[in-house]
Amino acid sequence: MSVTLLYIEDDREIGSAVSADLREREYAVRWLESGEGAVEAATGCQLAILDVMLPGLDGFTVGQRLKRTYPNLPILMLSARTSIDDKLQGLEFADDYLTKPFHPDELAARIEVLLRRTGAAMTVPLTLKHLMVYEGDNRIIEADTGKEILLTGKQFQIFSYLLRHLGQILTKEQIYEAVWGESYIEGDKTLMVHIRYLREKLELDPAAPEIIETVRGIGYRVRA
After folding, report:
1. CA atoms of 215 and 198, how far apart (whole Å)
2. Are 111 and 128 a contacting pair, CB within 8 Å?
3. CB–CB of 155/200 below 8 Å?
4. DSSP assignment, residue 205?
């Protein structure tokens, strides 16, 4: 199976050249020209390459969102900025930082290093009942059929947060504030609706869930 890279670059000339070079090196490339939709596009990707200067959301904001949603996804920042402050800001969440202009061979070498570094996380799945969860690979496989289960960006954020606290009971407030970044309002049904949709995709019997458990009066948990 080929490695899929998320590549975000608004300069079409640079983006086209870099995408073509990476595809020649047998990577699958998802190229976006802005950060809009980046969280959804990153599902199933093994690495993100992210330019700092983007229209709309800047690369730092996009990178932080990606890392919050997919904590095991390696991120390589690209920038024409050379100041140490910019590099330090990028490296608060990114795994590497490459200054433009760069040689394609150097970019490829940086990618290979990051993929080797995260290789163990990508290849060893977490087994939950009938599911194999590749946390570093952002993939969920139904063990009996081998079919990949596709989640929306928000669904994956919720499930990833539960997995990072495996076995712990999490309150609705904790989950909502971690995923939406806003204070939970008592009575809000948003999280409950997302949990229902998650169960429809992940559970053998959504009416009797065995993976995402409801702890009455408190919240939810995923058992190890």
Report:
1. 16
2. no
3. no
4. S
Q: How many CA atoms lie within 13 A of 179 on its CB side?
A: 23
pLDDT in tens, 20-53: 999 999 898 999 999 988 988 888 789 999 998 8
Is the pTM here over 0.85, yes or no? no
What are the DSSP calls for 130-184, one per residue?
A: TEEEETTTTEEEETTT-PBPP--HHHHHHHHHHHHTTT--EEHHHHHHHHHSS--
DSSP E strand stretches across the chain: 4-8, 28-32, 47-51, 75-79, 96-99, 126-128, 131-134, 139-142, 170-171, 212-215, 219-222
Rounded Cα–Cα distance for residues 31 and 19 (Å): 7
Instruction: Count Cβ atoms below 10 Å from residue 66 Cβ, excluding itself.
Output: 25
